[in-house]
Design a protein that fits this description.
Elements: E1 3-9, H1 13-24, H2 26-33, E2 36-43, E3 60-61, H3 64-68, E4 75-78, H4 84-95, E5 99-102, H5 105-121, E6 126-127, H6 138-145, E7 151-157, H7 160-172, H8 176-186, H9 194-197, H10 200-214, H11 233-242, E8 244-255, E9 258-269, E10 281-288, E11 292-299, H12 303-319, H13 321-328, E12 347-357, H14 362-372, E13 377-382, E14 398-405, E15 408-409, H15 410-420, E16 426-436
Parallel strand pairs: 1-2, 1-4, 2-3, 4-5, 5-6, 9-16
Antiparallel strand pairs: 7-8, 7-10, 8-9, 10-11, 12-14, 12-15, 12-16, 13-14
Helix pairs in contact: 1-12, 4-5, 5-10, 7-8, 14-15
Bound molecules: NADP nicotinamide-adenine-dinucleotide phosphate and L-homoserine.
């Protein structure tokens, strides 16, 4: 039987999972691939580190470029993460006419179009199913299964760590800090949890999906990105009272021929399937002009879910299926990309939570600022402070005050926010989140 020889760069969480599937299920893989899938060499940072996977020491190297130039290797699997060295590794692999499989969303988001061009020049393929939504086959869905549609809207939970943190906060009644600690202990959070909780990871994945679905090349600095790190447990509870879950939602949709793009914690009505996705699971809701709505869901982070996507890419390469798809992957070839809607023009409803002094005219002052900026209120909730005699003379109790607005433009919200800063009754920062009904 023929063999496909694989060089792996990075044997950490995902790399070890890939090595396990390749070794533990060699026979099954060979049947599906029509070839034996053989790990030929592996690059790591420290060859003396103990590992959860048992590979001969002679197979390991600390020089990733010795893998990409090895004439015996057919496929380079980049699982080291980061951008600079990973980019060198991928470029060298392609220049040496090796196919590439990667789980690196930061790399594909930043350099995807350049790397794809280099791959085509060298008649090679880059597979990156694992870069978005872990075990959920969303790249294949957009690149192949939905090819008969124009996608008109994409709304997605694509950061498993954030979704796990929000789920733990709400269902276990724990603070944001405690939920982050738990995500780190379990190993969901990236080495630097800032990428997850500040929204960057989800925004990079949205960039990749936007390129595939709409032909528009974007990085997170092109659209609004907000993480879950500004939320408190109370926001999840108040949203629930109003009939919503809060999720870190990545959105790309066509609005009058332009593309509305953002990644933000968003209130989503409980009834929607995407509001019901809990824990480290991801879900992508696509709307196609032929199929209507379609939902894709799986574990979005973690060793084996991500390894599952990497191995599927390797098998596709062995069969020749990946090469065919890759050559057609520029679904927009020749057509001008869809332009972005300026952030100020994005139109939707908003949730505000203020922390205010409970004294006369507070609601009137805030409503006045919002009203003068053409922002119409849909509902208001103020929680009572317990009656007490212990406040100092002239001091007022502090209470939470929530507003839901009718549809308005982001530009008006930003203008009102500047004025709200001047109100002495409001303590900063307040929370302002979009609503997706
Ligand atoms: P990780 O556990 O930190 O593993 C990184 C691996 O790369 C380690 O084996 C490390 O070697 C090796 N490495 C780092 N720098 C190197 C260098 N200069 N030369 C050679 N080897 C080097 O990372 P991970 O969680 O597996 O993530 C890998 C990639 O998958 C990232 O792009 C990540 O974004 C993506 N991803 C991860 C997940 C997930 O759930 N973890 C999910 C989807 C996608 P040592 O072991 O010797 O330190
Ligand atoms: N840190 C990511 C997440 C997994 O939590 O979804 C890697 O893409």
């Amino acid at each position: 039987m023929d063999a496909l020889r694989i060089g792996i760069v990075g044997l950490g969480t995902v790399g070890s999972g890939v090595a396990h599937i390749l070794r533990d299920h060699a026979e099954r893989n060979a049947l599906r691939a029509g070839k034996q899938l053989i790990i030929h060499r592996v690059a790591v940072r420290d060859i003396n580190k103990p590992r959860g996977v048992d590979l001969p020491q002679s197979m390991l190297t600390e020089d990733p470029l010795s893998i990409t130039t090895d004439p015996d290797i057919d496929v380079v699997v980049e699982l080291m993460g980061g951008v600079d060295l990973a980019s060198k590794v991928v470029r060298s692999a392609l220049a040496n006419r090796k196919h590439v499989v990667t789980a690196n969303k930061a790399l594909i988001c930043q350099y995807g179009p350049e790397l794809f061009q280099l791959a085509r020049e060298n008649d090679r393929t880059i597979c990156f199913e694992a870069a978005v939504a872990g075990g959920c086959p969303i790249i294949a869905a957009i690149g192949q299964a939905m090819a008969g549609n124009q996608i008109t809207s994409l709304q997605a939970i694509i950061n498993g760590t954030s979704n796990f943190i929000l789920t733990q906060m709400f269902h276990q009644n724990v603070s944001y800090d405690d939920a982050v600690r738990e995500a780190q202990e379990i190993g969901y959070a990236e080495a630097d949890p800032a990428m997850d909780v500040e929204g960057t990871d989800a925004a990079q994945k949205l960039g990749i999906l936007t390129q595939l679905a709409f032909g528009t090349s974007v990085t997170p600095d092109h659209f609004p990105v907000q993480g879950i790190n500004t939320l408190a447990l109370d926001d999840l509870k108040y949203a629930d009272e109003l009939g919503y879950a809060i999720k870190l939602l990545a959105t790309a949709k066509l609005v009058e021929g332009r593309l509305e793009l953002h990644t933000q914690p968003t209130l989503i009505r409980h009834q929607r399937p995407i509001a019901q996705v809990d824990g480290p699971y991801n879900m992508i809701e696509l709307t196609g002009d032929a199929v209507g709505k379609a939902w894709f869901s799986a574990m979005g982070a973690g060793q084996m879910a991500t390894a599952s996507a990497v191995v599927a890419d390797i098998i596709d390469l062995a069969i020749g299926r990946a090469q065919l798809t890759f050559q057609k992957l520029d679904l927009w070839g020749g057509h001008p990309p869809v332009s972005l809607q300026p952030a100020e023009e994005i139109e939707r409803r908003y949730y505000f939570r203020f922390t205010v002094e409970d004294r006369p005219h507070v609601i009137a002052d805030i409503a006045d600022v919002l009203g003068r900026n053409e922002i119409s209120l849909a509902s208001i909730i103020q929680k009572e402070a317990p009656e007490t005699d212990e406040l100092a003379a002239g001091a007022y109790p502090i209470v939470p005050l929530m507003f839901m607005t009718h549809r308005t433009r982001e530009g008006l919200i930003r203008k009102a926010a500047e004025e709200l800063k001047n109100l002495s009754c409001v303590t900063t920062p307040w929370v302002c989140l979009p609503v997706a009904d």
